[in-house]
Every structure is written in C-alpha cells, then in structure tokens.
Amino acid sequence: MSLLLIAPNRDLRRWKDALLDVDPNLEVEIWPDVQNDERVQLAVTWQQPAHVLERYPNLKAISSLGAGVNHILEDETVPDAVPVCRVVSPSLTQQMKEYVLSAVLNYQRNIFTYFRQKQQGQWQEHTHKPAGDIPVGVMGLGALGQPIAETLASFGYKVAGWSNSKKSIENVETFAARDELDTFLAQTKILVCLLPLTDKTHGILDLDVFKKIKHPGYLINVARGDHLVEEDLIYA
C-alpha cells in the first residue's frame, strides 16, 4: 500500500521526510507523481483538484492536512464509504489562540485607533476597559474553540461559549443549541466564530445575530467565509 500526499502549490517533501523518519518502511508518494494508482490506500490532502481522489480504486481513508475538511466533503467523487479525518496539530491550535487573543487585545487596547492616529500625525490618549469588563463569546467549542475560550478566560476576559451540545469548561459560561443562542448573544460584545461549516451553520453570522449582541459589537470570524452574510455585516 502507499500513502499519498496531495496539496497543489505546497512543498510536501518535509511531510514525506517526517513520515519516513517515523517508519522508513512506509511507501509515501507526492501527487501527481504516483507510480501505481491501485496501491494508494490513504490520501492526505489539502485543496485537491477535482476528480483526483476518484482515481484510486483501493482508497481506504482520506485525511485533511488541516482542521478543515470542506475541500474533501464538497468533492462529489469521494465515495461515501471512505472515512474522512483531519489533522489538528498543536502548532495550529497555538497559532489560532495567538491570533484571536491579539484581535481581542487590539480592541481592548485601542491598537487600531492609535495606528490611524499615527498615520494622521495625531496623539490622543484613550482609556481602555479591564479584561474583566469585556464579554467575549466563542461560537464553537471544539478542537480549536475550547482552547481559545480557555486562553481568553486565563487572561481575565469574561468568556461565554456556545456549541451544538453542552460543554463544561472552567471559567467559561457555556450555552448549547438554538434554545440558548439568544441568551449567549445578549451577553456578548466580541463574537468569535469557530463553528464547523454545515448546512445548519451556513450564513449563521447574519443581521439577526448582529442585532442581538451588545453594541457596538465586534466580530472575529476565524471559521469559514460562508458562515458570514457579508451584506448583513456591512449593514450592521
């Protein structure tokens, strides 16, 4: 059997070398240089070209190179019986925690305001609220959402979380399902979206949601673009 790496415009030689360091007996190939299509049983992919995965008749499993799997699920040529999994690496989790924390700090510390003032040659001091007075709501408490909520809470922010099913997270008030969404939104000023993209969450960041958060509200969408109704955001 062979393991196939697919990611156009990426240098996957480091991935191949790392896999062979773990097991030198592995047969690892990098698309499109595949010696025998019938030997491919596992494909690890990111943004694969259309119809590529249907070329391998003995495919047993498909893994995404990252946390997102939309590029796999949207490929209609992938057989329904083939399991799909994903990679959520510690480095990705750390990067996401750093990014969201920096975005919240930018609001709290007026970083954007000071940057604009600097461009205009102005100096005016602005007050900032303590972290405990800033309510942050995290939509999605999965492999990335939960550690981000925990990180924000550790910095003293008032953190709430909303997910499809009830979660218990230290120092985070949690809400679940549609019945508790409005309550979650009503106490949120900075809304962080980390939801998976499904039929139920497509377009969830809409005018109805923006009306229910505290005003002025702030949005940090680090999930998918299709979660957001851009026209509603602009109007809001």
Largest beta-sheet characterization? 5 strands, parallel
Distance between the termini: 54 Å
Total E-strand runs: 10
Q: Which stretches are poorly predicted, pLDDT < 50 over at least 5 residues?
A: none
Explain what this protein looks like in three dimensions.
By secondary structure, this protein is an alpha/beta fold. 30% of the residues lie in helices and 19% in strands. The strands form 2 sheets. The chain has a 5-stranded parallel beta sheet with strand order 2-1-3-4-5. Helix 7 links the parallel strand 9 and strand 10. The relative contact order is 0.09.
In a nutshell, what does this entry contain?
The protein is an alpha/beta fold and 236 residues long.
Label this structure with key terms.
236 residues, alpha/beta, 5-stranded parallel sheet, 8 helices, 10 strands, elongated
